[in-house]
Design goal:
Elements (H helix, E strand, L loop, with lengths): L3 H16 L8 E6 L4 E7 L4 E7 H4 L7 H18 L6 E3 L8 H12 L4
Parallel strand pairs: 1-4
Antiparallel strand pairs: 1-2, 2-3
GO molecular function: 5S rRNA binding; structural constituent of ribosome
Organism: Rhabdobacter roseus
Protein name: Large ribosomal subunit protein uL18
C-alpha cells in the first residue's frame, strides 16, 4: 500500500512531465533523491536515452559533509559531464520534489558548473 506522501509526489510528477519534455537540443535534467543519496540524469526524451548521469554514490561519502553539500557536488559533477558531452542548455525536472534543500543545492551546483536552465 502506497503512502499518501508518495501518492502526492507521483501526481505532481505526472503534472510536471506533461509540460517538461527533453529534446536533443535541450535535454531534461531529472533529479531523484532518497534519504541517503541523490541522483541526477540528463535525458533525451525523444530518443528515450540517458545521456549523462551522476550520483552521490559515485562521488563517495566524505566525512563531515551534509546531504546538501553532497547534492551540490553532484550538481557540479553532472555539469562537468554535460560540458564534456557538449550539453549546455537543459530543462530542470524536480520530479515532484519541492525545490528546497537537496534539490535546490543540486540545481545551484549545476548552475555553478555551467549548465543553463
Amino acid at each position: 500500500m502506497a503512502t499518501a506522501k508518495t501518492d502526492r509526489r507521483q501526481r505532481l510528477k505526472y503534472h510536471i512531465r506533461k509540460k517538461v519534455q527533453g529534446s536533443s537540443e535541450r535535454p531534461r535534467l531529472s533529479v531523484f533523491r532518497s534519504n541517503t543519496t541523490i541522483y541526477a540524469q540528463i535525458i533525451d526524451d525523444v530518443r528515450g536515452v540517458t545521456l549523462v548521469s551522476a550520483s552521490s554514490l559515485e562521488l563517495g561519502a566524505k566525512k563531515g559533509n551534509t546531504n546538501t553539500e553532497d547534492a551540490q557536488q553532484v550538481g557540479k559533477r553532472i555539469a562537468e559531464k554535460a560540458q564534456e558531452a557538449g550539453i549546455s542548455l537543459v530543462v530542470f525536472d524536480r520530479n515532484g520534489y519541492l525545490y528546497h534543500g537537496k534539490v535546490k543545492a543540486l540545481a545551484e551546483g549545476a548552475r555553478e558548473g555551467g549548465l543553463k536552465f
